[in-house]
User: Fold Cytochrome P450 from Paenibacillus nicotianae.
Amino acid sequence: MNTFNSITATSRLNPFRSDAGEGQFSIFAELRAMGAVIPITVPMGNTKGQQWMITRMEEVTEVLKNPRLFTVDQSLIEGLTPSVPETTTKADSSAPTTFFSGKSMISVDEPDHRRLRRLVSKAFTPRYMESLRPSVQQIADELLDKVQEQGHMDIVKDYAHPLPINVICDMLGVPVEERAQVHVWSTAISHGLGLGVREPEVEANLRAFGDYTAQLVETKRKRPADDLISQLIAIEEEGDHLSEDELLSMITLLIFAGHETTSNLLATGTLMLLDYPEQLNKLKADPELTSSAFEELLRFNGPATMTGPRYATEDTILGGQQISKGDVVIPLLKSANRDELLFEHSEKLDIDRAVNRHLAFGHGIHSCLGAPLARVEGDVAFRTLLRRMPNLQLAVPREEVNWHFALSSQSLVTLPVTF
Ligand code: HEM
Assistant:
């Protein structure tokens, strides 16, 4: 049993302090040395119970593979979580449905989770995703065509953002001229997200995003097209598989999850390669290493710091700690992915790593639905960038690279490069 005090919001070892910055990984290393399951008093998740950070691979996996014991659905532990989220105001009762307020696959466990996920899982199989490769390639080439002549670009704005948003919006049928606004909303939502703490600005963006999605569905109802939203509407209209609330939650989830994380990885991954020139040169010399490099970039500094919170449905022991019913556990993916018990030289970026069972896409029933899509996008994006711009270099001093730090992710604001 560990004997340390819990980590408070102001503690040096709170990895979510806004000034933790790129030092987050050394904090994770110290936390792992302290234990696999660490009490925290940083406000996270809507619970009256104790909160815990889970730092090591074995315990993170144990939580994620056991949704009966550690559920995403806080309504299952009635009495221990507030029935109305503490951040919800009265005005929210009229708010449109999004994956935050409604029932989406990411916020429910079985049997609803299986039903909801099955409705879209066919659209995300590795085989189907491979069939999208030529269109992903075309998008990547068109984006680089626009900047090739000028000899410089902002990787974030010119490549990492537009590539995934165009891919997912093509799949879903979001009109081209509306994508820039959708991206503004989802970036604002992802920057402002805490676990249980929602600023008014985030609420406003969620509301606008939800309103937009409801209108989009109405338009598609009148004029169905060959896209995933129209297919989901047809399922909803068949009756008993998908309610209106579930339909809207599903669409906002797919749009949001379908590009924010991938954008983040394409930009951060480019910076990581520039930070480790010997790895970058190895990749340029052998593009066949791209898919293994992509997995290593995910392990080394993947987009998701943590999964969503899980709630203990019973008293249990995890990593030697007593966990009580209603406690919230936060699986720290970025820490587990550097676990020295599992990865040799875990603090080293090695694009040729032989065994790489990272958790950047989560684990268990909620593991990332879009992983096969992200893998195709990453493979195409890095291959194309390095083939067409082999002299890629940072255009600003490394210390001037600008980050946005949020609770569940860290992303680059800009990444100016020359080539
Ligand atoms: C779930 C990461 C790209 C859709 C997740 C989870 C993680 C994750 C960690 C698990 C969350 C949890 O357990 O609480 C990533 C990363 C990506 C990526 C690192 C890119 C590099 C995508 C894409 C899509 C997508 C392209 C496409 C729609 C989803 C969905 C879920 C999910 C729908 C919920 C699955 C469920 O609850 O069954 N993702 N994701 N993601 N992701 Fe991704």
Summary: Residues 105-106, 117, 168, 253-254, 257-258, 261-262, 265, 302-304, 307-308, 333, 360-362, 366, 368-370, 373-374 surround protoporphyrin IX containing FE (CB under 6 Å). The CA atoms of residues 143 and 162 lie 8 Å apart.
